[in-house]
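Example record for the data management plan.
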Amino acid sequence: MVDPSRSAGPSHAGFPSASEYAQFAPTAQTAPVLRLPSSAAALHELIVTTKPVRAGDPLITPLEALAGSSLADKSSNRGGSFQNILTLNGINLATLTDAQLRQGTAGYVFVLGARLGSDKFEDTLPLALRLAAVADPEQLAVIPTRVAEFAWGILQAAEAAKEVPRALGPLQTLLDASSNGSYFNGVHAVFLEATLLTGNYDVGYQSIRRIYLSVHKDTPYLDVLTYHHHAGTVTATVGEFAQAAELFVFAAAMPTESVSAIQVACAKRAILCELLATGKNLHFPKYTSSAVNRMLDKSIPDYLKLAKAFDARDWKAVEEAAQAPVFRHDCNRGLVVQILGSIPKRRILRLRQTYSRLTLADLAAKVESAPALVAAAIERMVGSGEIQATISGTPPVVTFVDDDDYASAVNIAKLKRTHEIAAFLKSDLAQASRTLSLSPEYLKKQVQKIDGKDKGRDGKGGRRPEQFGMFTDDIGPAPTVRGVGSNLDDVGF
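Corresponding structural encoding:
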């Protein structure tokens, strides 16, 4: 019989009993409970008093939770209470000064974004436009996805109120304030849509000079698609068809399993813009999704027919293909009309390969157009930098110059733009190289690689990867570990 007063000893020296092992077992740790503001007044107090604003701080975390909860429980009473708190229901924000709006930028982006999505958006629009004009860039950088949602809310409310021109300036200011280096900015898609709605194509085109190399992980796929569609449309509107085709192709070739109608629209316009830019049939990249390719085979037969005829210089077939009603239905009739108008230009470019001098009358006869129209076409082509030619003498003689004028304004502008992109890429690559060369994971892999080579030569290994961690806090010169920028084998990105 076991004596209960006797303390139980271990059954074996190497195997402690359950009661002994329990003394050393880790205790269960509960996740901290997120406390949401219980009222609109409590949330407003949090917005006013919290500074500075950072991701995960006592303000952003509850706001994200409230925004997610009000959406998830939208049909329930609980969701309604969350919505009332998030919109600061019952609190008059119209009395806020610009300084107060700027100080509480992050919080008011959530609040006004929620209000713009309600039935009383017209009362919120003036305040939202004020916030867009005075927002704090540092706070906007913490919540890039919410800023884009806020911008969409402004545009939709402005459309409903028929005040899109009034919203254009604040949206441009918000775009400038929320730009974050080379990261894609969802506000840009909103701004471009506003320029299209108001006909301010030149303003939209100037904004496309921004260079994007990265995208935040939470950025909606639809925002990226929309940006490239709108950017391509704006670019085509100002006559930069080569750049427009590039933007449209990027959108059409984006990875996807379910094809978007935007991608199909981009593919159609890419084909037309390529004809205007080069006169050739467009071939989409090999990495284009198979789902997109299958959809395009069914959706664009009339576009392919037009492109193949134009590429083959079968002008009669081009004119017949251009009459398909699908072009008007897709709102692409304007591009097709320009394609038909570019036929004389294509004929001139082909004749330029054969003749160096030709009377204007003879050239017009070969082009099958009136001399005045041919002369005007040549002047436009010279102005755009496509050819170098002169028209002089009596009767007028067209002289084509083989040497390209690299000092022309058009070529200088292209060279300047290319230099800007190259400098930007060089800076971004240098930054990526520095970041990667300070990564403990990357350095450990490099040590493994070096140790493997050394071991293959002399059968001896070097420092173990787990021992290399001591160097990652403050990395100094290391002759055995080369930086990513100086070793072609170190391309890890």
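Summary line stored alongside the record: The mean pLDDT is 80.
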